[in-house]
Write a structure and sequence with these properties.
The chain contains six helices and six strands, in the order ααββαββββααα. By secondary structure, it is α+β, with helices and mostly antiparallel strands. The two termini are 35 Å apart. A hairpin with a 4-residue loop joins strand 1 (34-41) and strand 2. The longest helix is centred in the first third of the chain and has 21 residues, at 3-23. The chain has one domain: Nuclear Transport Factor 2, Chain: A, CATH 3.10.450.50. It has a six-stranded mixed sheet.
């Protein structure tokens, strides 16, 4: 097996481990996916990997339940650097206006990786939010949403942001979607990273 194929397999393994270990609350192994300076971007949190672990633990203790499901992965390699894109769905359950609901948000994980001392690690994870929906757990129930609040957020994660706002999170209002200036900047950052430039976030 050549070195490039081994790198591709290692990166796909790390992408899958991120989702499994994070959702299983296996924080010791989850840390091994990241480099020490790694950063996580999400609708409800932006900061270091270690801070992400802490706030995830705190949220779980308060009843926050978020799951991740993965699809295919694309890998772009440039020596000791890589960018991966992975199809994903984020699933979160919480009360919305008094009605237990599930939100499903489909998009991609856009990840910046670097190989240091022979080990690949995650430097930045930036999700791209493409489409979401909200469904009551009981099909007979129907929450009445605040339309003004819903309209404050981009279409790609509108219902996810609504749910997260209602349970107390401050949601970032300008995350990348399928199209638009935010995702174009992200793609440019990815190209610069693969060309050896600094991470612009």
């Amino acid at each position: 097996m050549d070195d490039e194929l081994l790198d591709r397999l290692a990166l796909r393994d790390l992408v899958e481990n991120w989702a499994v270990w994070r959702d299983a609350l296996d924080w010791a192994r989850f840390r091994t996916v990241w480099h020490p300076d790694g950063r996580m971007m999400a609708t409800w949190f932006q900061g270091t990997a270690e801070e992400f672990i802490r706030v995830s633990q705190e949220g779980f203790a308060r009843g926050v339940r978020i799951l991740h499901f993965l699809g295919g992965t694309s890998v772009e390699l440039a020596g000791a650097r890589a960018v991966t894109q992975t199809k994903m769905t984020i699933s979160q359950r919480a009360p919305v206006e008094g009605v237990p609901c599930d939100v499903l948000c489909t998009g991609r994980f856009y990840d910046f990786w670097e190989k240091r001392a022979g080990r690949w690690g995650l430097v930045l994870r930036q999700p791209i939010y493409e489409r979401d929906r909200l469904d009551p757990v009981d099909p007979a129930a129907s929450p009445t949403l605040d339309r003004d609040l819903l309209a404050r957020f981009p279409e790609g994660y509108r219902h996810l942001a609504y749910l997260q706002t209602r349970i107390g999170y401050r949601v970032k209002p300008d995350m990348p979607g399928l199209i638009g200036p935010e995702v174009e900047r992200l793609y440019a950052d990815g190209e610069a990273w693969l060309a050896g430039g600094p991470l612009g976030r």
